[in-house]
């Protein structure tokens, strides 16, 4: 067997104090480094035991709905080759709980917070945005891309007309930078991307999970109670890179947060070259709690030898 | 290199020095043995887990296979100095690979995780285990053996081979086991009661249980009928094991809770069983 | 390091004579086992040195166009985590060459042939189908799902109206069973699936590759000359399983050939449980020439203990 | 188990007994050594490849990492009894992992693949190599050394360290090398010609070349100007290495051909270089 198969040779002591060398700017907001956590894979109550979350570029929090949501029944997860599948169905304690507990704790800890907004209908999104409008959240991320709910979520992100209508309602409600999170489960992601931007998005984030499924061959039945789930993790990397590159080509100016399959500083860098201004780390944090911070540190070093890219990031300019 | 997780040997010390819980890291396997067909006991050296793990807490083990990135959670079954053991059934490709490890190999771990059994009261603990629910109860027996004021009665149901007798006999004050061909643990509990064994104890018993869902439900009902407290250790497919993904939920009277961090131990009242 | 990391413990001597135990039937055509090769990953001239191709359930051949096509410039491939990316762009010597060389050689060797049909426009497809109509090909597979050509290919498979129109033209041209090969690069694969079936498809095959991309962080530039490519291999397994399962649920009767990420008998079996009547193996054959035959043998053994599923397959009935 | 490729030790024998070319299989690494910074020579035992490989033919090596399923093609650099060597630069994660192999480890291989150099004529072969194009030319020198009627003149250009001198000196009748700081191989070829070395040979020379594209183009032009035949070994990213996927094409006067099976060796006429 392979002893130490996973040893990180380029050892970085992530607990040592670090001066971040390469900040980025997303929709006018400066991140101390280009690496944040992806929504749904970060709970402050769990992560704070592992590292200082203020060291992250940003913290993306779990999708927030107007009232508490129960999500889907279990089992909610299965494994794919180099991936995981999830069907949480946006379980969360609701925006009031978020404003009373999660957000203050994160701000207290010094984190830059990207608050993820979920809804089953336009009215849901509006209620959440209304409450977040005057909050301490630094940016709002409108999740129109969850594949695990039957209403809202992906059904909006795959329909540019519905997306435009939603944005027309949300945009006037707040001055906070509004990021629209898009799904790869479309024929051409640049279509909803353009709709979002034309109707007020300050930035885009992509990708949310890819629709997938596993069956248990011992029983012949789906593993996840909800049957299908969303694929994330290393397997989806090329899908996310293509989404960012194509969107960057179609929309040269819009800030983009690249997400999908990032588990190393090198892969984060690949997203930056594809046109992202920042990245978020999702599934990798499930397999090692400190992954986002380690990736941020790896990327900070990789950018040392790429001054041109680093300068563009720091200025909030786009690459390519 | 591709999946370069934090896993140098000193990362635990670094984390602790900085005041944090250790992340995933690589430890040395010190012993692997087959207890029965497809049942393996694996021991690794990890001073941190050894000194912190409580019964029914678990560890995430990770395979060396990039196809299988997700954690494999296993209840701690014994701690000896700085060595930690788990006992697991080989049921899929992950456990297949873990079973192939040999002493001297490295394996990645995260833990200890979860909320274990509450053993604070001095009591007569009846440990009711089924199948691969037995291992965490061995560790409960080990910990209870350190407390003279408590008593540990083990009641184990196996599918076929009684694979853990050697270990439980080291720690339990009294143990009894049965396999599928002979009957089930509720039969044993009944015989225990009829034999006046329960009454003979000077304190009211507390049930600790871990095993298949139907067994645990039956045990919870048996306990409820007798008004005996029961702590039940649940299982659910997990994404992270440390409370960040909400993938491991179980339905409780308080809503959907996380097995990994609200549990794995829940009371029968929380689960609404036997009411 | 991990000696023998890949050793196949359940050793099967694939060169020994084997009596296939579990045939399947796809659109009325019996396959001696449910495992074929996926189009574009099988060239008889290359594979015949490695094993007896008549032992496969079927041989899916490379997309065939009316005239020789040059395909895209190189590099045409990149690697993803647990996947490969390709941008061949349907290079092939044309249908006349196919009829003169590849097809006769394969029929001579005793293979059951699924001829893959490619086109840049309806007329291209019609020309190829016209020539294949009286050929020895056992089944035709209409490829409306290639992501690496700018006209035809995926642009038809993502547009149910265009797909229906194409099928209306092709269907009357031949009595041969016609399989329509679909792309996962759509919001809901059951929509083109239904269009294909309502307009004469005898069976469906899915999935073709998933749009993806890699950049070289040494240069910051795309690795593939065509920039984006199609992702295939283990990473896409959950995407293919979801596509088959959802299509089977929407269209309970149509035969389906499951494709995507199959590298073992177990994964082939998972597709059958998801609702496929047969499967095809693509990228796995790039990493080991004999993979399709090994998978067929593994599946044949796995089906021994699943008589109910085996019986349905043999009768050409669908599962679920 | 997940990526269960055919890789038992006897699969080669089984395939041959049935009259087929061996599929991917596992062989034993017998030696690994660093020739220069980031340049490694790896030797494995494979009687089939050892007895069949021709110069400029290559083998696919596979990592043990499921993130990296694609073949890593390397030209055979030497054959000694039943042992086969390759020399490679560590440029990415695949070669990084291969460089970590140790004697006694297993590695998966497929080969020999491709169409090698045509060495049938008795001639004065000038082996013009650049960087990691050198290794296949060492093997050409080794094979030519077996033929007394041919002569092998090696002209190698290195980036910096002259990593292969030890090996080429074993076989070539005459060898000369240069590194980037000193000049390029065309300079050497000119000096060779000016020194009347070429004319001194009793037969017209034949150039065999392998190296970076710009170098090979320059060499082809140099050869064309002198009407010297040139066989050039090309490189392209590959999907399969054995001719089934059409991923490895190179543009030739006959259209897009496969490097892996129509090549890797093409004549300068086929490539349309120097015309
Ligand atoms: C808190 C907890 C403690 C456990 N303790 C033990 C123990 O002491 N001994 C023991 O034998 N088993 C125990 N299990 C079950 C054990 O985790 C699974 O049997 C194991 O993960 C299966 O891995 P695999 O790769 O062989 O199975 P595969 O089916 O190939 O695994 C695929 C995925 O499903 C997950 N999975 C499959 N079955 C289970 C399951 N029953 N529970 C949770 N996840 C599963 C795997 O972790 C993996 O992510 C425990 C589970 C939990 C949640
Ligand atoms: C016919 C042939 C013979 C070769 N012989 C040698 C040799 O003798 N010595 C040597 O050092 N190198 C040789 N190469 C190049 C060698 O194959 C690559 O350097 C190696 O595959 C890089 O792998 P990696 O994982 O480190 O790089 P990565 O960039 O991480 O690999 C990613 C993917 O790209 C492919 N790739 C990357 N660079 C190349 C390249 N230059 N050529 C082909 N594929 C590439 C890899 O095979 C892999 O599929 C040869 C290539 C070919 C086509
Ligand atoms: C368990 C889990 C829960 C998620 N929940 C959310 C969510 O609430 N809102 C959201 O926008 N995305 C959610 N996502 C998607 C991730 O934010 C991310 O877009 C996706 O996982 C791809 O990134 P990765 O490959 O790094 O995981 C979730 C992903 C996972 C794995
Ligand atoms: C190199 C390559 C070439 C392909 N060419 C074709 C093609 O000509 N026609 C087609 O319908 N699909 C083509 N495909 C798609 C495959 O047939 C298959 O649908 C896809 O690769 C998914 O299966 P896999 O994961 O087993 O590879 C090609 C795939 C690869 C990797
Ligand atoms: S497994 Fe992630 S929260 Fe429990
Ligand atoms: S690499 Fe597949 S044909 Fe050349």
TrEMBL record, chains A, C:
GO terms for molecular function: dihydroorotate dehydrogenase activity. It comes from the Bacteria. The keyword Oxidoreductase applies. FMN binds at residues 39, 62-63, 116, 143, 181, 207, 233, 260-261. Substrate binds at residues 62, 86-90, 143, 208-209. Keywords: Cytoplasm, Flavoprotein, FMN, Oxidoreductase, Pyrimidine biosynthesis. It holds the Pfam family DHO_dh. Its cofactor is FMN. The active site is at 146 (nucleophile). It is an enzyme of class 1 (oxidoreductase). PROSITE patterns: DHODEHASE_2. The keyword Transport does not apply. Residues 24-303 form the Dihydroorotate dehydrogenase catalytic domain. Pathway: Pyrimidine metabolism; UMP biosynthesis via de novo pathway. GO terms for biological process: 'de novo' pyrimidine nucleobase biosynthetic process; 'de novo' UMP biosynthetic process. It catalyses: (S)-dihydroorotate + A = orotate + AH2. Binds 1 FMN per subunit. One of its GO terms (cellular component) is cytoplasm. Its main location: cytoplasm. It is found in: Cytoplasm. Its EC number is 1.3.-.-. Catalyzes the conversion of dihydroorotate to orotate. Belongs to the dihydroorotate dehydrogenase family. Type 1 subfamily. This is Dihydroorotate dehydrogenase. It comes from Bifidobacterium myosotis. The gene is pyrD.
From TrEMBL, chains B, D:
FAD binds at residues 94-95. This is 2-polyprenylphenol hydroxylase. Its cofactor is [2Fe-2S] cluster; FAD. It comes from Bifidobacterium myosotis. PANTHER family: DIHYDROOROTATE DEHYDROGENASE B (NAD(+)), ELECTRON TRANSFER SUBUNIT (PTHR43513), DIHYDROOROTATE DEHYDROGENASE B (NAD(+)), ELECTRON TRANSFER SUBUNIT-RELATED (PTHR43513:SF3). It holds the Pfam family DHODB_Fe-S_bind. Residues 22-119 form the FAD-binding FR-type domain. [2Fe-2S] cluster binds at residues 240, 245, 248, 260. GO terms for molecular function: 2 iron, 2 sulfur cluster binding; flavin adenine dinucleotide binding; metal ion binding; oxidoreductase activity. It comes from the Bacteria. The keyword Flavoprotein applies.
């Amino acid at each position: 067997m392979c002893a130490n198969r996973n040893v990180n040779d380029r050892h970085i002591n992530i607990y040592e104090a670090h001066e971040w060398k390469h900040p980025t700017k997303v929709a006018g907001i400066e991140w101390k480094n280009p690496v944040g956590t992806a929504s749904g894979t970060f709970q402050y109550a769990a992560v704070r035991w592992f590292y200082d979350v203020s060291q992250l570029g940003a913290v993306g929090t779990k999708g927030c709905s107007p009232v508490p949501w129960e999500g889907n029944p279990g089992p909610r997860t299965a494994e794919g080759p180099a991936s995981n599948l999830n069907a949480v169905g946006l379980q969360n304690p609701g925006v009031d709980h978020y404003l009373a507990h999660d957000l203050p704790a994160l701000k207290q800890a010094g984190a830059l917070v990207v608050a993820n907004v979920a809804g089953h209908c336009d009215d849901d999104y509006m209620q959440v945005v209304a409450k977040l409008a005057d909050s301490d959240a630094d940016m709002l991320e409108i999740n129109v891309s969850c594949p695990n709910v039957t209403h809202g979520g992906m059904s909006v992100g795959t329909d540019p007309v519905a997306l435009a209508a939603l944005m027309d309602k949300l945009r006037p409600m707040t001055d906070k930078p509004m990021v629209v999170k898009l799904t790869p489960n479309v024929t051409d992601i640049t279509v909803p991307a353009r709709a979002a931007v034309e109707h007020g998005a300050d930035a885009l984030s992509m990708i949310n999970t890819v629709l997938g499924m596993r069956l248990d061959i011992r029983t012949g039945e789906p593993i996840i109670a909800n049957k299908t789930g969303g694929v994330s993790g290393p397997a989806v990397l090329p899908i996310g890179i293509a989404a960012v590159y194509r969107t960057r080509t179609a929309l040269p100016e819009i800030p983009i947060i690249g997400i999908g399959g990032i588990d190393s500083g090198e892969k984060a860098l690949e997203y930056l070259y594809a046109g992202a201004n920042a990245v978020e780390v999702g599934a990798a944090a499930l397999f090692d709690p400190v992954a986002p911070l380690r990736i941020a540190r790896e990327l900070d070093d990789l950018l040392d030898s790429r001054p041109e890219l680093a300068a563009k990031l720091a200025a909030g300019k786009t690459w390519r | 290199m591709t999946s370069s997780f934090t896993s140098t040997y000193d990362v635990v010390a670094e984390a602790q020095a900085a005041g944090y819980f250790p992340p995933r890291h690589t430890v040395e396997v010190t012993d692997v043995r087959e207890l029965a067909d497809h049942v393996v006991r694996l021991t690794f050296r990890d001073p941190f887990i050894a000194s912190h793990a409580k019964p029914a807490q678990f560890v995430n083990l990770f395979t060396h296979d990039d196809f299988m990135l997700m954690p494999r959670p296993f209840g701690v079954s014994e701690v000896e100095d700085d060595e930690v053991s788990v006992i697991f059934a080989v049921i899929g490709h992950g456990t297949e690979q873990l079973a192939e490890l040999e002493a001297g190999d490295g394996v990645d771990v995260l833990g200890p995780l979860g909320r274990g059994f509450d053993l604070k009261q001095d009591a007569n603990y009846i440990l009711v285990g089924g199948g691969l629910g037995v291992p965490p109860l061995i560790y409960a027996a080990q910990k209870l053996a350190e407390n003279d004021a408590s008593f540990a009665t083990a009641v184990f149901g196996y599918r076929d081979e009684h694979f853990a007798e050697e270990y439980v006999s080291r720690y339990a004050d009294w143990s009894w086991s049965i396999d599928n061909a002979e009957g089930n643990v509720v039969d044993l509990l009944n015989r225990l009661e009829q034999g006046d064994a329960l009454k003979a104890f000077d304190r009211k018993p507390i049930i600790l249980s871990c095993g298949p869902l139907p067994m645990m439900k039956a045990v919870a009902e048996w306990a409820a009928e007798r008004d005996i407290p029961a702590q039940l250790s649940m299982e659910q497919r997990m994404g992270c094991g440390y409370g960040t993904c909400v993938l491991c939920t179980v339905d409780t009277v308080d809503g959907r809770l996380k097995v990994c961090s609200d549990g794995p131990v829940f009371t029968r009242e929380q689960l609404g069983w036997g009411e």
